[in-house]
Amino acid sequence: MKAVVNPSRRVEFDLLRGSGRGPRLGRLRIRGLEIPTPAFMPVGTRASVKTLGSEDLEALGARLILANTYHLYLRPGAELIARLGGLHRFMAWNGGILTDSGGFQAFSLARLRSIREEGIEFRSHLDGSRHLLTPEGVLDIQARLDSDIRMVLDVCTPQPADRARTAEELALTLRWAARSREAWDRALSAAPDEEAAGIRDEEGLRAGGRRAGGDGDRAPAALFGIVQGGTFPDLRRESAERLVDLGFDGYALGGFSVGERAEERVPGMEAALAALPAGRPRYLMGVGTPLEILDAVARGVDLFDCVLPTRNARKGTLFTWRGKLIVKNRACADDGGPIDPRCDCPACRRYSRAYLRHLFQVGEQLAGRLATIHSLAFYQQWMAGIREAIAADRFADFAREARARMETGGA
Ligand SMILES: [Zn+2]
């Protein structure tokens, strides 16, 4: 197949600062949305970022969220969401949505799963019903959800894994990527301006009101390929090169943070990034802590998602500019100060550490909500700080200072 650099034609990525290597400042434009990068996507697993409404996410400045295809496919079902106008309208969210392929959860959550040439067969973890996720099928599900950025089906090799297994699963991932690319072309050519290509109806966009006008509103969604290859740099490079030959709107780095040590991650990540085109967005799936994000931005990654800020928050561990705060600790019992003095989120402006600790101690649901609001606000501030530093050509200073403050808890 002829290499196509930008298969959807109208998904734009402007690289404002930087190049293929090192920190980059960018602007992803898709379907009337503008997303400044590097950017972090809060995780809304089941069409909800737990404890928050879409109005909260807007107030926090989130532009793009992640939703999990596996969960939504099983409940309430992609057909139902399509009938109700797609995922944006279903959850009343006017920002962007990236959906994964569902493969990772099918493999990690489902019972009796098996991977074969055709796809991933599994039994639902909810009711034992039998399902088959194919490269073509997951694109169809994501089209019904009408997400803005869609992911191909891949095999995420858990670590540690030997070279033979990693190479075998990578080869299957690449065959699936080629099938995905062909299915995407068929959908675009069959209905270039229709639902098959992921078109949202205009009424829904007007109801949203936050999107920019213009023809971006009727543009196709984006399709991202996923680099695999475990901890083997040569396999990572080969994976990236083959995907670039196929041509995707953006490229994800999958299979990181799946059991490998942090130092094992770097060579594979660098090998993959070196083989990806500078002018397309790169997305590191499922990573990470604020410092892990900093390290990946330094190497040229643009997009992130992670459950850590929200999951940890609900358990009482919050990220701050001075590192992790375990708000349940006794030290917070009579601390009348804010969660993070440097943060101006609604939780920090109004409530004290002592109050938040009390809410956790007595099991009030507000505890998880306030903690989530802060942690996501902090991640937004962290990414904004990164972007400002890159724009001002002082990313290295920012990274050094932020790391030191976080590691020492210093002021
Ligand atoms: Zn805050």
Instruction: Let me know the CATH homologous superfamily of the largest domain.
Output: Queuine tRNA-ribosyltransferase-like
Helix and strand content put the structural class at alpha/beta
How many whole angstroms does the radius of gyration measure?
21 Å
Q: From the 3D coordinates, which CATH architecture of the largest domain would you assign? A: Alpha-Beta Barrel
- Low-pLDDT parts are 1-5, 194-218
Query: Approximately how much beta-strand content do the residues carry?
Result: 15-25%
Give me the number of helical elements: 16
What coarse outline follows from CA principal-axis ratios? globular
What CATH calls the topology of the largest domain is TIM Barrel
Could you tell me which ligands this complex binds, including any ions or cofactors?
zinc ion
Strand order across the largest sheet: 4-14-13-12-11-10-6-5
Q: Please give the CATH class of the largest domain.
A: Alpha Beta
Number of strands: 16
Number of domains: 2
What's the quick description here?
Its EC number is 2.4.2.29. The chain is an alpha/beta fold and 411 residues long. Helices cover 43% and strands 17% of the residues.
Tell me what the structure shows:
The chain has 411 residues and is an alpha/beta fold. It has 2 domains: 12-209 and 217-305, TIM Barrel (Alpha-Beta Barrel), CATH 3.20.20.105; 312-408, no CATH class. Helix content is 43%, strand content 17%. The chain has 16 helices and 16 strands. It has helices spanning 54-60, 69-74, 78-83, 87-90, 103-109, 135-145, 163-190, 202-208, 233-246, 262-275, 290-298, 308-314, 346-350, 353-362, 365-391, 395-408; strands at 12-17, 25-30, 33-37, 39-41, 64-67, 96-99, 111-116, 119-123, 130-133, 149-151, 222-227, 250-253, 282-284, 303-305, 317-320, 323-326. The strands form 4 sheets. An 8-stranded parallel beta sheet has the order 4-14-13-12-11-10-6-5. The protein starts with 11 loop residues before the first strand and ends with a helix. The model is unreliable at 1-5 and 194-218 (pLDDT under 50). Zinc ion binds at residues 339-340, 343, 345, 347-348, 374, 377. Homodimer. Within each dimer, one monomer is responsible for RNA recognition and catalysis, while the other monomer binds to the replacement base PreQ1. Its cofactor is Zn(2+). One of its GO terms (biological process) is tRNA queuosine(34) biosynthetic process. Pfam families: TGT (PF01702).
